[in-house]
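ENTRY TYPE: protein
WANTED: fold as tokens:
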Amino acid sequence: MLAEILHTGIKLMGLFGDIAEKAVSETALELSMSKKDRVEKAKWGALFAVCALAAMAAFAVQKNSMKGADLLGGRKTIERFMHSNVTAMVILLAAAVGFVIVCFKTWKGRRSSIYQLIFTVGAGVVIVFSGVSILKSIHNIQIDLDSPLTLTRDSYVLCKEGSNYMLTFDQEGTQDSVLLVIPQEKYKELKNGVISKRGYLSRSWRLIENENYRNFTDAVYYESKISVTYYRHSIIYEDCSLIEDETHT
């Protein structure tokens, strides 16, 4: 009887030992997987941050290198815009090349981790979206450089905004108006046009009145013919002049 009890006790101890060993083994496996997940998450999270920072750096360089471009005036301003966007695109292309290399070297198909999948989709979207935005700007600036727009208008409005001299006129075929910063000498030249009291009928005049958040002063409406050349996508002035036989002095 005692022998049977001892035998049963030994069997139970062995069973408990097996259960304990299995539990320890499973716990170790879970801890190992958890550590692996943490490593994967940290690795791909850091790589995504690098791609996002590269995109942010591209836009920051673009914005910073455009500072003061308006003071150059005309074509020089547009050329500065182009240089800024090309520089930003080079930075973004470097990030894109790094992204492609990382994906090519590490992609394991279905065996790839969820964190790698999130990185691939997320970083891809950031790079593509940023690239499209910059390429669109480059395309529009190139159009401006290749073919600045020259228009003839029968009326215009002159005004000031702080130390800036402004010219605005109705845009043909749209409900919009164009507002340009012009040199002081051109402002003085255009003031030789025929002043009219019918300015309230023009969209240009309404633009000046509606821009309440901007401090426009000395607004005057003129009914004289002018020729204006400007870069339509960048809204930058290139040249303007009165058509003499339509003016009075």
